[in-house]
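Quick one:
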Amino acid sequence: MTVVRYEPWSLLNRLRRELDDSFETTAREASWTPAVDIHEEAKQFVVHADLPGVKPTDIEITAEKGVLALRGTRHFEQKSDDGHYSRVERVNGKFVRTFTLPENVATDQINAKFKDGVLELTIPKIAKVEARRIEVQAA
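Output:
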């Protein structure tokens, strides 16, 4: 029989390393973060995301497993003929934003519009399914 040394913190350390790796992956994947406003109306949620300089074809929207994800790329447009800039402050590159969706939304009916650098998503609400009590009857 082999003696195995017990390390009480090994599981916690492994979890910390996995979380660190996860955050590093997200940071590498996204180089900027667009501003987003979300407001709730009676029949829907409305999301506005500021995406100036992003083309609609460079935006990907997914909704699965209760998570809404906005991904895309803003490409750097070099306007100078000689290729020399004295300052570049406008960010470019990939972005990712994710949001947890409530249970009472119809993800298959999400609508997206893009106008003047603002993405608008409308997410319709559905009737919330209430839990019901089921009586157990003796046989």
